[in-house]
Fold this protein.
Amino acid sequence: MKIKILKVNARLVGPKIPVSKTDPVGANRRLSKANKQIEARYKRLKSSVIDLFRTIPVTAINAQDAYGYRYDFSAIRAAQFNEALQQLIDEILLDDTQPMNAGQFWISIEVSDAYAAGTIEAQQQLAAMSPTYAEQRTITDIIYSAPYVQRLSIANAATYGDWVGLSDAARNDLSQIIMNAIAVGANPRDIESDIATRVGVSESRAKNIAQSELTGILRKSQADEVQESKVLLGLNSALFWISALLPTTRLTHAIRHARVFSPEQCEEFYSKDGNRYRCHCGQTPCMLDDKGNVIMLESSLERMIGVKDKWLSAYHKKAA
């Protein structure tokens, strides 16, 4: 969707431009809170797995040999160990939550709060830009509506699925490392060091998942409300893309900066090529005129385009 610069009356309300250039979606505070919980859970996980490993009887048969240890680890004991390992990982990472109660899952609380915050932001922006919307879509009407509840349930279920996959992967990695080391009679201290390393890898994955989920749900909530405004009220609304122009920003994300897209176009973009992962970009509601041009001040749009051109010159000279 192309944008033409419009000279409009300064009293007209255009899309809200975030103050932060690196966190336009406004997820950093929420992500910091989630990361603290992740760090606490993984600290507990590391100590718990090491404690579980130490329950396996071991005898040194050659103290000078890194592989001079014999473990009392029968097939039955191995099965019991793996069962206990999965149980403690699920207890720590999933709160032993069942899928049907995914709304109570600890990270889902953060997801639900983010979805509500994004919806409130979208409602306020659309209400400021459209009297028609302001008269017919209050935030109370939205958050107690069946479509809102359904979308939130879907988001929570997807979040739970991501963390179940993380839990399964952690159990597989830790089990394989421990089983292989026991089989060759590795030094217990070396095994504990390997356990700590693999737990750290899983923690990094957990933080990446949380980042993708929280930024994604903030974007999704705004896109959903823009879509509702189009379907229910017939508004000529869209999403104004604001890229986080960091040195690490992908070119395909940066070139969308200061452009307009429909909710469907944004959804399609994030469904491909891993675009939803590690993305810090934001999209904010905007209104279009009869020709499909975004309604905003000429100076604001020119300034944003200039910032993008400067980034392209610095990091992608060929694209610029």
Notes: Residues 1-10, 98-103 have pLDDT under 50 and may be disordered. The two ends are 20 Å apart (CA to CA). Residues 188-233 form the longest helix (46 residues). Residues 236 and 290 are 8 Å apart (CA to CA).
